[in-house]
Specification:
The structure is a single chain. The protein is an alpha+beta fold and 272 residues long. The protein is 37% helix and 26% strand. The strands form 5 sheets. It has a 6-stranded mixed β-sheet, with helices on both faces. A two-stranded antiparallel sheet has the order 4-5. A hairpin with a 4-residue loop joins strand 2 and strand 3. Helix 3 packs across helix 4. It starts with a strand and ends with a helix.
Length: 272
């Protein structure tokens, strides 16, 4: 009967990478109200300038996951990311799921790809390849069927429109496309049945404090919430007080706390 809020993070890691700490490439808060039967999805920009618990200097929120792992703090990167969100945004976070590129691609391929309406033509000649070069990415506007690799490019490209703000909206589109595919093709029961094998395949590609039973329970709850009861928002220019350059030449975003509080209270604390 209680609201559940989950931090979903994607990190810039592929299978075979040997670094021990990574910045978060994307951060989304997914909140489910089982009584009001609503879902809210809030995307957090990587350059949001925040206090990170235990560290004297402010930094980009994307570094919280890195610092938690690099300094081997209790709960590692995910817990420090949760603590950072709670401190700076005033949102209680119950659980976290952190996935890398391999887990993202595998999940989408496992359900046979996703279908979505691309709102505008995308051409990114500087999309990064695996080896410090470029792998140009093009996707026309309109209805598209995306496999895991293409969906990852769609979610990550930044050289379009308003950069990270538009990128966050595309990541939300992918999330909704995954939900639609599971519901429309009745894939969810099969995915749940195959979950133990899938989780074994993905071992090392994801981290979560959700048990398999809790994952299934949340998935079953979410599938019964209609699309018009799902609200998506991005902390974009409307909620930014200033675009700032730090002393070490980092471009960061300063949150407009008063403006954001209205959004936060509506999405995370006001019952339906």
């Amino acid at each position: 009967t209680d609201r559940v809020t989950v931090l979903v993070m994607g990190i810039d890691q592929r299978a075979g990478d040997t670094d021990t700490a990574y910045r978060s490439d994307s951060m989304m808060l997914v909140t489910l109200d089982p009584v009001g039967r609503t879902v809210g999805v809030l995307s957090i920009p990587r350059d949001l300038y925040v206090e990170i618990p235990g560290f004297a200097d402010r930094d980009k929120i994307t570094t919280a996951n890195f610092k938690g792992d690099a300094y081997d703090l209790p709960g590692g990167g995910p817990q420090l990311a949760v603590d950072t969100i709670e401190l700076n945004l005033g949102i209680r976070v119950d659980f976290y799921v952190r996935i890398n590129f391999t887990a993202f691609e595998t999940l989408i391929d496992q359900i046979g790809g996703v279908d979505m309406d691309n709102p505008y033509e995308i051409y990114d000649p500087e999309y990064p390849d695996c080896c410090y070069g470029y792998d140009p990415f093009y996707l026309p506007a309109g209805q598209q069927h995306l496999d895991g690799a293409t969906a990852l490019k769609f979610a990550r490209t930044r050289h379009q429109g308003e950069g990270d703000f538009d990128r966050a909206q595309r990541q939300q589109l992918i999330g909704l496309a995954i939900r639609d595919k599971l519901i429309s093709a009745n894939n969810l029961p099969a995915l749940i049945a195959n979950a133990p094998g899938l989780l074994t395949t993905l071992q090392g590609s994801y981290t979560t404090n959700l048990s398999p039973e809790q994952m299934v329970s949340l998935a079953l709850l979410a599938k019964d919430i209609p699309r018009d009861k799902i609200t998506t928002r991005v902390i974009d220019k409307e909620y930014i007080a200033d675009f700032y350059i730090t002393a070490d030449n980092q471009q960061v975003l300063i949150l407009n706390i008063e403006k954001f509080r209205e959004l936060r209270d509506t999405m995370f604390y006001t019952p339906e």
